[in-house]
Amino acid sequence: MNARNLILVSALAALNPIAFAQQPKPAEAAAKKGSAQDLVDTAIAAGSFTTLVTAVKAAGLVEALKGDGPFTVFAPTDAAFAKLDKATLTALLLPQNQAQLTKILTYHVVPGRFDAKQVVASKSLTTLAGIDLPVRTDDHGVFVGNVNVIKTDIATKNGIIHVVDAVILPPELPSIVELASKAGSFKTLLAAAKAAGLVEALSGDGPLTVFAPTDAAFAKLPKGTVESLLLPENLAKLQTILKYHVVAGRVDARAAIGAGKAATLMGQELTFEIREGRLCVNGANVVANDLPARNGVVHVIDAVILPN
Prior knowledge:
By secondary structure, this protein is an alpha+beta fold. It folds into two domains: 162 residues, FAS1 domain, CATH 2.30.180.10; 126 residues, FAS1 domain (Roll), CATH 2.30.180.10. Helix content is 35%, strand content 25%. Strand 4 and strand 5 form a beta hairpin. 40% of the residues are buried. The N terminus is likely disordered.
């Protein structure tokens, strides 16, 4: 299993059943009903998910999807995969395209057990790819990412399967730096990252988790602090502060709650807790969570976190 998938499996192990933001609570009542098989064995036994199972094996995700979970899988049938261009499907299964295949497959998986009723009640669900999967209902049925759900609530011992009639392709996402630049409220952070020589790292493959202070958060620092940090002679101190806001790997809000702590690139740990229904990190409030980027995830915070 490669490093990317080791990170994925570690993240799965850290997941906590506590719902965050607007997601409904998983349907634990259905956990023991239906098949005694796990998600992978249930798909194999069905006989209509041969391509999906082959793709899961090629991506190195079998171990993760046979784990405790629970997970909700929107499973494309063989007929759904057949709608893809044959050359595209063949290319995705090649070893050199494993990262792209993994991204597509994890876009079909949501941590937690969400039955059909809960899916319909959701506007979106956050997937293991770190990208929200939109949900809509109209006269033609239920759609996830513009793909039709054709069968629901296939229970397994570690999750639930909903069958879809096409492969759901994740949208193209900006890098962490592009996301921050487009938002317009992280000018100070971007200036600091540039001065610290960290822009290239934050634009790289990652994945990284960034707790991003807004311009208003930087403005809370004592007068003259930001200007001083941006001076060349204070480069090391600036790098230390910025790296204290970055965690290796993709840590979404649910995983942060479950883990309680995470080691930063600077070396010291961040501590997560819930205060008055809101996620906090080292005393700073997370004012927006799980903003997906191509190379990680961004959580917006209302204060700059200073290391000890």
